[in-house]
C-alpha cells in the first residue's frame, strides 16, 4: 500500500513501451548474454531549437572544454527521459523503461545543478507521490506512477537517495530554498522516518537489502547503508531549510552515530562490499564512492585508499569499471560506476583522476553522442543508450571540476 495512491498524468512518450510482460525480461544485472546496443539514434527525435532554448535557460558545465558536447548530450538525454510528471526512465529500452528512485535522485540533482529547478522539483514530486507509507520505496515504478512492473524486492537505499536529492535541489539555489522546502516536507519527513526506523535512530546498522546490484542479499552491503547515511546527513540539512534546527541537530547526531558504526564495521575489510567482520569476505565495490564527497563532508583517508583499490580491482579490458571486483568476469565496463568514480574523484579534489574517467566516458559514447549503459571488452557500446544514471552523474562530475 502506497502512502499516496495517485495516478500521475503527463508521462513521457516512453511510457508506451512499458508493456505487460516486462517481468519476464532480464534484470539489469542478471547473468545473461551481454546484449549489443539496444537502442539507436531514432529513440528520441531531437528538436534543435527547443533543445537549444532549454539548455540556454540553465547552464552547461564544461562549456568550452573537452567534455562540452558530452555534457550537452547528457543533459538533453536526462530531459528526454524525464516525463512531465517527473518520472525518470532509466533508459529507453523496455526493461529499463521504468523509474528507479536511485536514478531519479541523480537526475534531479543534475537538473537542479544546471539551473532547471522546475524539472528537478517535478522529479522529487514523482518520488513523493510513489513513496510508501513507511517512507521507503519500491525498487522501481511504472512511469505513470500507478504501480510497479513486477514483484521485485524493495531496495532500502531509495529513501537515502531521495533525501540526498532533496538537499541537492534545495542547495542549488539557496535564495529560493526556504520557499521550496515546505513543498518537499512530506518527502523529507517520511524518508527520514524510514531511515531512522531502519537504523534505530542511528544506533544500529540496517538489515540487508538489495542495492544497485539488483539482486537479493543475505548480508548488509555498503551499497545499502552508505546511501542511508548520506540521507541522514542530507535530511538534517533539509530540516535547517525548514527552520527546524533542533530537529536537524537530532538527525545530525543520529547520522554521526551511524557513521561510527559504518566505519567500525567496514573499515576492517577495507570498505569492501560487505562488512569486514562478517562473511562472505568482501571485495572492492563502487559503493565506496558513497562514503566520499559529495555524499559526506570530508574524504576519509581510509575510504580514499579503498576507492583506489576499487579502481584497480574492478578495471575491465576496455578501460572502464565494473560495479565491483566481485562482479562477474565478462569483460564489460559499466558507465554508471565509471561516472561515479569521476564524480567522487572530482569532489575529492583528485582532478587528474576525474579527468581520466571523463575522457574514457567521452571516448565511448554512441555514434549519436549518448552514454550507453555498458561498454564491451572490444570498446563497443552495449545495452540501452542513453542511461539516465550515467548521464546525470557525468553532468555532476564535470560540474564539480574547476574550469579547464
SSE topology sketch:
Layout: H1 48-56, H2 68-81, H3 101-113, H4 117-130, H5 157-172, H6 174-180, H7 185-198, H8 222-241, H9 245-266, H10 301-313, E1 333-334, H11 335-347, H12 351-363, E2 374-375, E3 381-382, H13 388-400
Helix pairs in contact: 2-13, 3-4, 3-5, 3-13, 4-5, 5-6, 5-7, 5-8, 7-8, 8-9, 11-12, 11-13
Strand content: under 5%
Unreliable stretches: 1-31
Strand tally: 3
Question: How far apart lie the N and C ends?
Answer: 49 Å
- Largest beta sheet, briefly? 3 strands, antiparallel
Instruction: Please provide the ordered H/E string of secondary-structure elements.
Output: HHHHHHHHHHEHHEEH
Helix share bin: 40-55%
What spatial order of strands do you see in the largest sheet? Answer: 1-2-3
Q: Please state the CA-atom Rg, rounded to the nearest Å.
A: 19 Å
Keywords: Signal
Signal peptide: 1-20
GO molecular function: hydrolase activity, hydrolyzing O-glycosyl compounds
Organism: Kineococcus aurantiacus
